[in-house]
Design goal:
Elements: E1 7-11, H1 15-21, E2 35-37, E3 59-60, E4 65-66, E5 68-72, E6 101-103, E7 116-117, E8 125-126, E9 130-138, E10 143-148, E11 156-164, H2 165-168, E12 170-178, E13 184-193, E14 204-211, E15 215-220, E16 228-231, E17 241-245, E18 252-255, H3 260-263, H4 267-277
Helix pairs in contact: 1-4
Bound molecules: 2-acetamido-2-deoxy-beta-D-glucopyranose (3 copies).
Length: about 280
Amino acid sequence: MQSVTLILLLIPLCSHLLHAQAVNNNSFDAIRGCKQYVHVADYNGQLDYVSTNTLQNVGHTNKSRIFKIGILGTNDGHIRFGDSRYPYGRDVIEIAIAGCLQYDHVPGYNETLEYFPTSSFRNVGRTHNSRYYRIGILGSNDGHIRFGRSAYPFDETVIELVISGWSNTQSVARRQTRRRDQSFNNVVLKEASTPRLLSRYRPLVFRMEVFENGRVQLTKDGEQRPFFEYSDSQHAIPADYIGFSRWDADLIYFYDCPLKEDSSGSVDSTVLLRCSLA
Ligand SMILES: *[C@@H]1O[C@H](CO)[C@@H](O)[C@H](O)[C@H]1NC(C)=O
Ligand SMILES: *[C@@H]1O[C@H](CO)[C@@H](O)[C@H](O)[C@H]1NC(C)=O
Ligand SMILES: CC(=O)N[C@H]1CO[C@H](CO)[C@@H](O)[C@@H]1O
């Protein structure tokens, strides 16, 4: 049997969740408030059994008990239940990507990218000399973001940001010129060590700020200092169009995410927070 990685999510039964679906913008909104279980054992491995007595969200009828569960993966989810008790992790998944648009079926590095016009984004931050965008990446390594001036930037220069390539160790900024036959030239602008930045189990969510003078800063949610930055003042390239690619690992991107300062105080977050604590 093909080895698969699954993530099981125990979902709270909560009427507010139905209300929240009206504003769903990506499929991960459905698992808000769930506990997350990763590093799932193989079929013949030792399973951790979660004691259902300790779950906060169990539906009851006088003839049954109801559990709501989510599975993320390509195939072969296996659920076993019985009367044994084992300890379990209390890790509550935090859905940082609420309200983002989701992009999967990400094209390969040498395929034609789909560039999204940032002028159509609902969520763009602006300062007097920069614009910023909130983006999420879920996957084990090698996020690739390209941005530039047009939707079909062949024979044009774009910026390519490699987020934790080289087996999730290093991030790089390049100036890239790509031709219609997909041949390309790269000029390296910056290399930085970023060990274990990406994860298959938790999205990396960050702000990408593009300054008019060619500076670019990537800053993780909840952090003040960029984890990656460079400046290319000779060739400032605006992020009028943004595209996403991958290398050897499947990725899911989240883009046009609500900017942090907006999302934290919104009505929807409040409702959902109450839901996950219920
Ligand atoms: C179970 O619930 C149903 C409907 O809620 C009720 O009609 C029935 O009498 C209940 N049965 C018992 C054994 O309590
Ligand atoms: C993309 O093309 C370059 C040059 O043609 C090649 O070296 C590289 O391995 C290709 N990458 C992928 C992921 O196919
Ligand atoms: C919470 C949120 O961002 N909701 C948006 C989902 O998408 C629709 C249509 O694009 C918007 O109208 C909502 O505001």
